[in-house]
Amino acid sequence: MPAVSTCTEAPPAMPVAPPVETLRQIVQRYGTPTYAYDLDRVRAQVAKLRANLPSVVEILYSLKANASLGLCGFIAGRGLGADVASAGELLTAVEAGFPPERIFVSGPDISPAMLDHLQSVPAALVSIDSVSALRTLQETGSQGSQTVFRRGILRLRPSFCSLAACAAGPDTRFGLLMEELPRCREFLASGAVRVAGFHVFSGSQVLDAAAVIHHLRGAVEQSLRAAEVLGLVPELINLGGGFGIPYGPGDSELDLALVGQALQSLLQRAAPARIVIELGRYLVAQAGWYLTTVIAHQTHQGRQAVVVDGGTHQRGDLCGLGLRRKAGPPVLLERRSSSLVPTDVLGCLSLPADVLAEGSALPPLSPADVLAFPNAGAYGLTASPVLFHGHPAPAEVAFAGGTIEQIRARASTMSIVEAQNRLRQIGTA
Questions:
Q1: Is pLDDT at 142 greater than 70 in this prediction?
Q2: pTM
C-alpha cells in the first residue's frame, strides 16, 4: 500500500449559518417531520466542483444518495449526468430531465424490470458488474431477428486498498476480478455489447485529498491494465468519486484544489479516454435539513433525553458512519439563551436503536420545540425503512432565494393501508 498523507493542512470546515427563519416558515406550512433542501447550497457545491476540477471531467449525480424527483430535476438543470442503480432510479432520472446519453446505469441489478426499462433508454451507458451480467446483456441483445447493440463499460473490483469511511476495496462484492477478464472475450466478440471502457468505485465519504487521489490514480492504472488484457482502447473511464463532507466539528473540508490537480495529470495518463466521476453525498448532504418536533421528555443511558416525532425510519444511517455520536448537534429553531446540557434525541419508534443524537449540547427542551438536523440531504428518506411501524412518509420541501416549494406531499396515515387488500377468499373460515 502506498504511503498516504494524513492531509493535516486541509482547510477547516467553515460553519454555515442555519436558515432558521426559512425553516420556521416550512414548519408552519408543512409541519413535521419534514425534509427541507437548500437549493442554493446544491448550486454552490456544483460551482465549487467546476471551479476546482478540470472542465472536461464529466460529473454524474448518484441518485442513490437522494432520488427525490424535485431535487433530481434541479440537479439535472445544472448540467450534470445521472448515475442510477435500479429501474426506479432510471425512471426517476428520465422523468427529472437528465439526457439519456448522460445516464449511467451501475450496480448488480439486471432484473427483467431493469432490462425492460433499458430498452426504452437505449442511449444509457451500462456498467457491467460480472461475467454473468455480461452474458445476460449479450443474450438479451441477440434475441429475435435483430441484434440490439448496447454500449457498456466493465466494472472492475479494485485491486488496491480502499481508504474510504464506507469502503469498497478488493474484498467488496462488486465488479470483475482482473483474472476474470479473459472470460469476457467470447461475449464481446458477438458485438451485442460494445465495451467502451471501465468503471472502478472504491468507496465513499473520503475527506482526505491524498486518499481520494490514491483511489482515482488506482482506478486509472487498473483500467489501463484491463484495457491491455482485452486489447482495447477505452473511450471512457468512470473513476467513482466518494468525496466526503464534514459531518462533525472535528471534520475538515476536502481540499478540492489538490484533487483537481491530480485529475489534470490523470487526464493525460488516461487519454484518449474521457474521465467521469460520480458524486452523491458531496452534492446534496449539506443542503438537507431534517425537521422534527419534541413530543416528550425521557432519559437515556443516564442522560437527559427527548423524544421527537421523527426517527431512524426516516433518516437511516446506512453507510455505518455513526452519525448519532459523530455529527454536530441539531439546531433548535426557537432561539433560547440558556446553558447547554448533553441531551439525547430519541425517535418515536418502539426500537431501542431509534436514536438520532447522543450527548448533543442543547438548551433545555420542551414539547413543541422543533429541532433541525443538518447535513441530512443524503441517505435520508430514500435510504430508510420508511414503512416500519406504519408511519406515513414525511413531506419534502425545497427552498431557494426566499421561495419555498413542496416537492413531496406529506402522506396520510390512511396511505399505509390504501394499497393493501384484506383476504377475501382464504383465511376467512
A1: no
A2: 0.93
